[in-house]
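Sample 1 of the test manifest.
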Amino acid sequence: MAGSVDESRFPGFGGRRAPDLFVSKKRISKDLRKALWRWMVTTRQVEARLGILYRQGKVVGGLYRGEGQEGVSVGSALALEDGDICGPMIRDLGANMVRGTPPRDVFCQYMARATGPTEGRDCNTHFGDHSKGITAPISMLGALIPVVSGMAWAAQNQGQKVVGLTYIGDGGSSTGDFHEGLNMAVTLNSPLILILENNGWAYSTPTSNQCGNEWFIDKAVGYGVRGIQVDGNCAEDVYRAVKEARAHAVSGGGPVLIEAITYRMNGHADHDDASYVPNELRDAWRERDPITLQAQMLIEAGIATADELEAEQQAIFDGLKEDYEFALNSPTPEPVSATGGVYFGEERGLPDPRRGARH
Amino acid sequence: MATTTYIDAIGKAIAQEMRNDDSVLLMGEDVGHYAGAFKMSKGFLDEFGDTRVIDTPISESAIVGHAIGMAYMGLRPVVEMQFIDFIACSYDMIINFAARSRYRHGLGVPMVIRGPSGGGVSGGPFHSQNVESYFLNTPGLRIVAPATAQDAHGLMLAAIRDEDPVLFLEHKFLYRRIKEEIVEGQVTPIGQAIVRRPGDDLTLVSYGAKLFDCLEAADVLAEEGKSCEVIDLRSLAPLDMDTIFTSVKKTNRIVLVHEACLTGGPGGELAARISEDCFDWLDAPILRVAALDTSVHYAPPP
């Protein structure tokens, strides 16, 4: 019998058996170790700036952050290769940015500017870019699983050695599409990597109200897929786990389910004060902030000094100014642009919306 | 000359497109080895192989979800719902993912979702539905419902070549009852209604199996000296209002006939558009003849 979970490492997950964490000695280059830190910081800083803009009333909808989960989004996306397909969810802005979404696009999107990737048509992280291998999510959780699996299957069928990576939360794993999507991915032997980010909370609902398994990775055996459990706050472990999963899927081994144990450091969105989360849990997880952990490793390995990291963090923060100012100075879409573009060949901005609305 | 049934006309269209275009594939429950519950895909697996004729698990949502992903990658999936009633299980994928994709970020989903709809075969409440009304309120979808073998063939060719998701509503009552000579390869454009019978006194508008009831009614009324014009809509989205308006302006009376339930059915939308544009030409209220607002009864009429 494995012992029980070490609560100093995974606060709040007590009462479960010790997780069977993926470990690998695979060497990660200095540059990559640094890149993991830099992408996590960039993601955190973009969200921090969005938080300011949100409080200023510049973000017209909700603000959904992945704070505390950057180790998962950044670590996993950096393990992908050119041609791979990635379908990030709202906590995975880091994956979006690693795949090539510039901060400017994120600011414009959240502020519903005409210059944004959806030109004001959709909100938050609901945007993608086919050319960068980023597939946009919809709000319905689990829906990306079959879609990304279908994309990965098609690519494999076209002879490409690529994978499809998407994410789900502990809450989203309760949806029908999680089951149907993963199950069908297995029957197609699709090269799908599904990362389940177990962050403790689905909006206000704790994981204990989502499923009867001790850990979500226990579902893997039920679906007949390779299961990997990983410390989601260690970006390097996530990176290695996804590399392992990628090799498995690309070589025809079929889908892989990864459970990344992590924590949501904010409410569901910025309108949610998350008063239902015990303060001591949040404090305990602050100690395990993935960015802090990565910085400690960089310093211990002599890759960077604390001063250097602080200076670089400041430079990243300062560097965003041009991007959010661009967004602030960008126009909002003309009302008429809300019409059209529904069907192939249909122009946006119909002269007579009442007529144009008829199909 | 040889005749082709309605269902074989559909199969011929899909096979033709699969021969002409490697990106077209068929997927669904029992479509491969078993050739489909109605045997539409007989011979498909042997001819095209199991990467283009895909037997799926019983997962309508995941089937459509995978098809969306395949369409994003340049394939043109044709998805079979074993009975169209089961399309409800994939409703989210169709209305939230597929239909909104182009509007949200310009990415089209060329995909056909087809299956047997309609009653008349003692299928009971879950194998007899007409699902068009569930989807007519969703921008981004094309919806077609052929009545003849030629249109079943021609609309399927158009649907597969269309760049947007198309719901292809077949009528199972017509599958083997309709047999006619068809011109293979002849496309029926989406969005064009057709006048099946010209007349002067009354316009009857319908689609699918009810078209034939309208034609029969026109025969009966002809014996009473009344001349009916009968329009086959063929497409429900987009609607060909010009053909209807032209007819109303000639006959000044119109009855809308469909097998979908009355309330919230296509007839309501048609009636609204006719009254908006042709009020001055109407000599009588627009009437609807439609299914009762109930589920479809299992026991046949005595």
